[in-house]
User: What shape does this take?
Amino acid sequence: MKRKKVIALITAALTFTMTICGSLTAAAASELTAESKPATQYTIDANQEVYALLDFEDTAEFENATKGRIASPDTLDIYDENGKLVWSQTAYAFLDQDAPDTANPSLWRDTQLNHIYGLFEVTDGIYQVRGYDMSNVTFIKGDTGWIVVDVHKRLLPWWKRIWALFL
Assistant: This one.
């Protein structure tokens, strides 16, 4: 009997929470549009503080991110077998510019670093394909063959990402 009461209370609490969150989300979403809005003064000031705290002239992270790059295509637009564009690094070309007032400069820098793509040699016998979507695939040369570490957080299988290097 006591267990039924606990289950009923938990169910009621979850139902209430989901109802409230759902209605708040719907209300907030109705205010969102595709139009870009200018940064508020608060956001501009907060981002200026980030610029003051960090050395954005230091390019060491870019040097680290490109270290070991063996190959990368000039552009990276990947299409599926039907000719539909499924991944485009070209769409992220805006990242080559400075951060707008609406974006945290540190997060912008991190995104710029994630925008670097290609085949990289991490160390002897360990290679990575990076930047072809939100995940990397790692190849480890073993004594009897290759070990492939693929986390499956992407649009394309690893072999299509490698094939794109040579097209």
